[in-house]
Design goal:
Number of domains: 2
CATH topology of the largest domain: Cytochrome Bc1 Complex, Chain A, domain 1
Helix content: 25-40%
Number of helices: 19
Shape: globular
Distance between the termini: 31 Å
CATH class of the largest domain: Alpha Beta
CATH architecture of the largest domain: 2-Layer Sandwich
Number of strands: 11
Largest sheet: 6 strands, mixed
Order of helices and strands: HHEEEHHEEHHHHHEHEEHHEEHHHHHHHE
């Protein structure tokens, strides 16, 4: 259930290489390999023109269609995004959006169960789906001439999924097994799940796990699945993204023929609760026999491009890189280079629905007391708040962040995720086309102000995952 932001899209671009071949390992971060595409124009020029040159239009039933042409190879990617993710799970029914994603593969009015995936595989293509906090998406990558095939089958799934009752229990077992492998057998997965629940509350939309709490997964009914589909899977709440070797006239005709037949209907708009005024548990500690090194995590509630002081969103992206973007960052210097930690990082996602999270993390070197590492983190934050970031490190962070724009132009794996991920959460197309420009316009004073707003008086939680027997 990966996220679909710029960051993950760029990191996973190489998982769908320019030819529709078998899946490969994820590429390294574009920040570490900015020269992967030497023929691409410099980042400074990319900031002044749209990255994808996408065309967008809306069908009479409300479905938005986006096309980003690229004729490097005869391959197309076809993504259908719904503006509904785990954040829309009803209270007490966490995991419903993800459960429905699984059930959407159980056939539709004119497509037998499993036939879509089989047809794509026979054509040498790939198909899959994912659920994030904000969206659910279904996608295929095929040779360009097979675009009508996947459009027809995906549109049929959109219009009338079967959700057969006989498959609910077997699929529930699959999901519970997935939960066990992702969380139950993963000590860091267990810690992260408990940490978010401690910070936000176990029934807040951000405090619930994407895959759902086990007891709530067990209680989801077929009626619940139908109700979620009927409320959220409407054309006006969906975005179709086609990228690769496709012509606008062809895509317009195919979209009208197949998706235009999906009836328009009302949908339930997002209605997410505000963040808590104070963290449920300001400090959270968990011990686990399966871990050997202590792990530190601190998260603070932060604005995003859709919530709160949105003007801080782009500066916070720069701040996250400046604080924990690898060698050269402040946490790396304060923790790794001093021998206190084996690794340190910071993360923040501006492209999310509702309140965001600014996170600092580190893994203590064996023998280092947790209190000593945490004191070093506090000192690094205090120095930043007192003196602000330097102009040089601000510029360096922006350059390294925008270097990823080069990779976003290569292959076909990142473009649909970047475009659909932005549009499906209600942001304008310009946010995807010109994100290097938005970052390049960030100034040192803006980063300092964003740091004071989020790290100066944080609402959040500090957590530790420690070796040892559970308390």
């Amino acid at each position: 259930m990966p996220s679909v932001t710029r960051r993950t899209a760029l990191r996973s671009a190489a998982a769908l290489p320019v030819a529709a071949a078998a899946p490969t390992a994820l590429a390294q971060s574009p920040l570490a390999q900015p020269a992967l595409v030497p023929t691409a124009p410099p980042t400074e020029k990319l900031a002044d023109r749209p990255l994808f040159g996408a065309t967008s239009w809306t069908l009479p039933n409300g479905l938005r269609v986006v096309l980003a042409e690229s004729r490097r190879v005869p391959v197309v990617s076809h993504y259908l995004f719904y503006g509904a993710g785990a954040g829309e799970d009803p209270a007490g029914k966490s995991g419903l959006a993800h459960f429905l994603e699984h059930m959407m593969f159980k056939g539709s009015r004119n497509v037998a169960p499993g036939a879509l995936s089989l047809a794509v595989a026979r054509e040498g293509g790939q198909d899959n789906a994912f659920t994030s906090r904000d969206v659910t998406a279904y996608h295929q990558t095929v040779e360009a001439s097979r675009l009508p095939l996947v459009m027809r089958m995906e549109a049929d799934r959109f219009a009338g999924p079967l959700l057969p009752g006989a498959t609910v229990e077997p699929e529930r077992a699959v999901i519970l097994e997935e939960r066990g492998s992702r969380i139950g057998s993963n000590p860091r997965g267990r810690f992260w799940e408990a940490f978010e629940a401690a910070m936000w509350g176990p029934q807040h939309w951000r405090g619930r796990p994407l895959i759902g709490w086990e007891e709530e997964i067990r209680a989801i009914s077929r009626d619940d699945l139908h109700e979620f589909y009927a409320a959220r899977y409407a054309p006006v709440n969906a975005t179709l993204v086609v990228t690769g070797d496709a012509r606008e006239a062809e895509v317009r005709a195919l979209a009208e023929e197949f998706y235009g037949a999906v009836p328009a209907r009302p949908f339930a708009r997002r209605d997410r609760a505000a963040p808590p005024a104070a963290a449920g548990e300001p400090r959270f500690t968990q011990t686990d026999r399966a871990v050997r090194e202590a792990s530190f995590l601190r998260a603070a509630i932060a604005p995003s491009l859709t919530w709160g002081e949105a003007r801080h969103a782009w500066p916070l992206e720069v701040l996250a890189h400046l604080m924990g973007g690898g060698p050269g960052s402040r946490l790396h210097a304060a923790l790794v280079e001093t021998g206190l930690a084996t690794g340190a990082s910071a993360s923040y996602d501006s492209e999310t629905v509702g309140a965001g999270t600014f996170t600092l993390s580190a893994t203590a070197r064996q023998g280092v007391a947790p209190e000593r590492l945490e004191a070093a983190v506090d000192a690094a934050i205090a120095a930043l708040l007192q003196d602000g970031p330097s102009e040089a490190e601000t510029i360096r962070s922006i350059r390294q962040l925008t270097a990823g724009a080069v990779l976003s132009l290569d292959g076909i794996g990142s473009a649909p995720r970047i475009l659909g991920g932005v549009l499906a959460i209600g942001l304008p197309l310009e946010m995807a086309e010109f994100w290097p420009r938005y970052l390049r316009e960030v100034t040192q004073p803006q980063v300092a102000e964003a740091a004071r707003a989020v790290l100066g008086q944080p609402v959040g939680t500090t957590g530790w995952l420690l070796p040892g027997a559970p308390a």
